[in-house]
Amino acid sequence: MEITIPSLVPSVQGDLPLGIPKGDASLVEESPSHLADAAREFIAAIGDRRVFAFYGSMGAGKTTFIKAICEELGVKDQVTSPTFAIVNEYSIDHSDAQPMVNGQCLMFNGQKVYHFDFYRIKRLEEAYDMGCEEYFYSGNLCFIEWPELIEDLLPEDTVRVTITQQPDGHRTVALL
């Protein structure tokens, strides 16, 4: 399955909106509806799978897309990159919203989302020490950035998600 997200980064000269200089790793969403649509399409494809490994270069939009997925799932907490914490935990609370994607979101209500960023992991033992396998087999949603560094620990049924930035600024999200 492939999802295309149009124009995550606007093509402008000079500074980007909100005063972010060009070349900064931060992404500015030009059209929030495109990102939300892509997140809903991703959620509709989740099924009974729970562990998702996000592959992509630095600045490809992994954190931005995970944030959009969490928002569409009903996470009320601020979703941020867990670069220094390694894992952030969020609760899904869809009690004050309408069901979306044919009720798909409501099936996750009350569950946890674990958002990992293994960019800073130097040795596989560090991931073992933080108990990552307990999270992966918890039955809760796990979104993993920089999974290349812990490949040997990923469950067999992990869904590989590749985010690729196209020359025109679009992102392609492929689920493998």
Structural write-up:
- The structure is a single chain.
- The protein is built from four helices and seven strands, in the order βαβαββααβββ.
- It is globular and about 40 Å long.
- The chain has about 180 residues and is α/β, with parallel strands linked by helices.
- A hairpin with a 5-residue loop joins strand 6 and strand 7 (about 170-175).
- It has one domain: P-loop containing nucleotide triphosphate hydrolases (Rossmann fold), CATH 3.40.50.300.
- Strands 1-7-6-2-5-4-3 form a seven-stranded mixed beta sheet, with helices on one face.
- Helix 1 crosses helix 2.
Portion of residues in beta strands equals 15-25%
Number of domains: 1
Instruction: Write out the CATH superfamily name.
Output: P-loop containing nucleotide triphosphate hydrolases
> CATH topology, what is it called?
Rossmann fold
**How many helices does DSSP assign?**
4
* Structural class by helix and strand composition: alpha/beta
Overall geometric form? globular
Q: Give the end-to-end Cα distance, rounded to a whole number of Å.
A: 7 Å
Give the % helix: 10-25%
Order of helices and strands: EHEHEEHHEEE
Poorly predicted residue ranges: 7-30
Would you report the number of β strands? 7
Main β-sheet, spatial strand arrangement? 1-7-6-2-5-4-3
The CATH class is Alpha Beta
CATH hierarchy: architecture: 3-Layer(aba) Sandwich
Q: What does the largest sheet look like?
A: 7 strands, mixed
The Rg value, from CA coordinates, equals: 16 Å
Mean pLDDT equals: 79
